[in-house]
Specification:
Oligomer: heterodimer
Number of helices of chain B: 31
Largest sheet of chain A: none
Structural class of chain A: mainly alpha
Largest interface: A-B, 21 and 26 residues
Shape of chain A: rod-shaped
Number of strands of chain A: 0
Largest sheet of chain B: 5 strands, mixed
Helix content of chain B: 55-70%
Order of helices and strands of chain A: H
Strand content of chain B: 5-15%
Distance between the termini of chain B: 49 Å
Distance between the termini of chain A: 47 Å
Radius of gyration of chain A: 16 Å
Radius of gyration of chain B: 26 Å
Chain lengths: 39, 635
């Protein structure tokens, strides 16, 4: 069954901004410090 | 051998549950849904089977093998059915490739992740709490062939249903099998979540939610070791699933019985199961309000609920009371060692603030952010949630508005599904949100430890998958990141798993007690009793280890003794023959009374007169010494 892309533009813009912000924060605040611990 | 035993017991557990459900007349929407419920029921029943043979002193390999063997013969028809079902999965998967390629790839990924988990489950256990009690206590049960109270280990009166499976694994002499038994609950959850997604009208939602759940780093890391939080999530999820069936299908009273049994199993795993019961009790009346059925249906539902809720509570009690009774009979406290200020006796007050960042309004708003970014503050980065939940959480909030207003996500989903109306879908989503919110509130205001949030995650992962439908590509990217964590998690064990390293080399590197335990097991008789001052990781020691800290708390020997000889008399009466002394860097002698063993061992004269040093060795920053006690009359 083919599922439709349903989100309107305003929602997609907000989502992508949020997703990017969360991803970068995660890399800076969690992943890099954890990798630092390992070395 | 391990894989054969695991395969046999998996099939038996599934078939036993399936047989019982069939006999009781429960019906399901397809084999996927049936498989989850059956595995959950069978898992609990097998756990109770081990408990009962243990309580009556028949905990030995012969009784277990004969009983389970007979059960296997009796359930042969069910076993053949499920074996055929599993063998037909690759064929079904291939047919999915053409009609629903997205689901095909997610299903394939699910299979890959579970295979990786199975591989990592073959590692010899080294997890901290497993060494302290999840495995050590089952090992003592097996050694004494009965399930008994170990008075100098506070954990031995905990509800231990998952540990009954570990006991069974140790009966077969295979600690890796214990890891795999915990993994069964992860597999059951994957099947159940997938079935729930399918129920919502989209197999992809189910498979994506299942993947979100099993690839949550905390879940993956824990389901391959001998802890019990994924087991708790397993039982509480199916108790919740039962409420969906009740609300959705206007099912009869017997579903309240099943829900009670699952909640009873959950209460047999951890006290924290109370959270999900509270959430279900709130949700049950809500199903009437949310139900899409008309007036007559509501009246029937209300009547059912009025009769069903007491039945639910009775069965929850019946399927869990034995653990609490056991604790009450031994210590006068049904939840020993917690809440001694209410129940009296020895124990420890539970510190509700030992994890987390606070319980204020700002803490509440920021908690998901903090759990994701600084999981160390919530019980450790090994139990982290990963990025999927935080990223899609705003869309889950959006889903709440979706259920009342213009529909961007839910209505198209209902339109695509032939089997579900929008009203039913809306009710199910609201129940998922309700359960998540209530459980989360309990968690937030009690112990903010990530592990204790696990029972919420199967439900939340379904919501996340529903919300993430329009952005499934980003979801797939985040899942791949989590898969990277899963592969990385096993990094220290791949040499062993690939046969390039033997177990003793792996353990020598990963388990600090391994070499001292080997020395003790080879040089001290198994029937000896060792006063352990103070190594908490005890699984690899064969003789009984008595933790000095708990022995002191229980007997109060430093206070009741006037001389070192009085102390020795107490040890002799308990049958203690040896002392394992560990000099940890962090040991604080200042806080110990002068007649505590640790203090006495600082006295050279005491050591010369009453202790014979048998062996000493270093392990990392710690130094181990093993002594034989020379009691005054035996000198």
């Amino acid at each position: 069954m083919k599922e439709k892309e349903t989100a309107p533009l305003w929602m997609s813009i907000l989502f992508w901004l949020w997703a990017l912000f969360v991803f970068i924060s995660y890399v800076l605040l969690f992943i890099l410090p954890e990798l630092g611990k390992g070395t | 051998m391990t894989i054969l035993l695991a395969g046999w017991l998996f099939l038996l557990t599934l078939s036993l549950g399936s047989f019982l459900l069939k006999k009781a007349g429960f019906s399901f929407q397809g084999s996927l849904e049936r498989s989850g419920f059956a595995l959950c029921l069978g898992y609990g029943v097998i756990g109770y089977f081990v408990l009962f043979i243990g309580l009556f002193g028949f905990l030995n390999l012969r009784v277990a093998t004969i009983s389970l063997g007979c059960l296997t013969v009796l359930l042969v028809r069910e076993e053949v059915f499920w074996l055929k079902w599993f063998l037909s999965l690759p064929q079904r998967l291939l047919s999915l490739r053409k009609e629903d390629p997205k689901s095909f790839y997610f299903a394939l990924a699910g299979f890959g992740v579970l295979t990786l988990a199975l591989l990592q489950a073959f590692l010899p256990p080294t997890a901290h709490d497993s060494m302290c009690y999840h495995l050590y206590i089952p090992k003592r049960f097996v050694a004494t062939q009965r399930i008994e109270y170990l008075p100098y280990l506070v954990n031995s009166l905990f509800p231990f249903l998952i540990e009954m499976h570990f006991t069974l694994a140790l009966l077969f002499g295979d600690p890796a099998l214990a890891n795999i038994f915990h993994l069964f609950s992860g597999v059951g959850l994957f099947l159940g979540i997938a079935a729930l997604g399918k129920r919502l009208g989209s197999l992809w939602v189910g498979l994506a939610a299942g993947l979100i759940f099993i690839l949550t780093p905390g879940i993956f890391n824990q389901m391959v070791i001998t802890y019990n939080d994924v087991g708790l999530a397993f039982f509480s999820f199916f108790a919740f699933y039962t409420i969906l069936k009740l609300a959705d299908e206007r099912a009869g009273l017997k579903w309240f019985v099943l829900m009670g049994i699952f909640s009873g199993f959950a209460m047999s795993v951890k006290y924290l199961a109370l959270f999900h019961i509270a959430a279900l009790l709130v949700l049950c009346p809500l199903t009437l309000i949310l139900s899409p059925w008309g007036g007559e249906g509501r009246v029937r539902g209300a009547r059912n609920l009025f009769r069903g809720l007491p039945i639910y509570l009775i069965f929850t009690f019946l399927f869990s009371f034995i653990w609490y009774l056991r604790s009450y009979l031994h210590e006068g406290n049904p939840v020993y060692p917690f809440f001694p200020e209410i129940f009296g006796g020895t124990g420890k007050e539970y510190n509700f603030d030992r994890a987390g960042t606070g319980k204020g309004i700002l803490d509440f708003i920021l908690v998901f952010w903090r759990m994701t970014m600084i999981p160390q503050r919530f019980g450790g980065s090994w139990a982290q949630l990963g990025l999927c939940y935080l990223t899609f959480l705003p869309l889950v909030f959006f889903l709440i508005f979706e259920t009342f207003s213009k529909n961007v996500i839910l209505r198209p989903m209902a339109e695509e599904s032939q089997s579900r109306s929008f009203a039913l879908l809306r009710m199910t989503v609201l129940l998922l949100i309700g359960f998540s919110f209530i459980y989360f509130l309990f968690w937030f205001f009690t112990v903010q430890n990530l592990r204790f949030l696990f029972p919420l995650l199967p439900v939340l992962s379904v919501l996340i998958a529903v919300a993430a439908r329009p952005y499934w590509v980003w979801l797939a990217v985040l899942l791949m990141l989590n898969a990277g964590f899963a592969v990385y998690h096993g990094k220290s064990g791949y040499a062993y798993l690939l046969g390039r390293e033997i177990a003793s080399v792996y353990l020598g590197r990963e388990e600090r007690t391994h070499s001292v335990a080997q020395w003790i097991n080879q040089n001290i008789p198994e029937e000896a009793k060792v006063l352990n001052v103070e190594e908490v990781r005890m699984f690899y020691f064969d003789p009984e280890m008595i933790r000095e800290r708990e022995f002191r708390k229980k007997t109060r020997y430093p206070e009741s003794s006037k001389t070192p000889e009085d102390v020795l008399e107490v040890l002799k009466k308990t049958g203690i023959t040896h002392i394992l002394f560990v000099l940890h860097e962090e040991t604080d002698p200042e806080s110990l009374p002068p007649l505590a063993i640790w203090s006495l061992m600082q006295d050279a004269d005491f050591k010369n007169r009453y202790l014979q040093l048998l062996h000493e060795q270093s392990a990392g920053n710690d130094k181990y010494e093993i002594y034989r006690i020379l009691y005054p009359s035996t000198q």
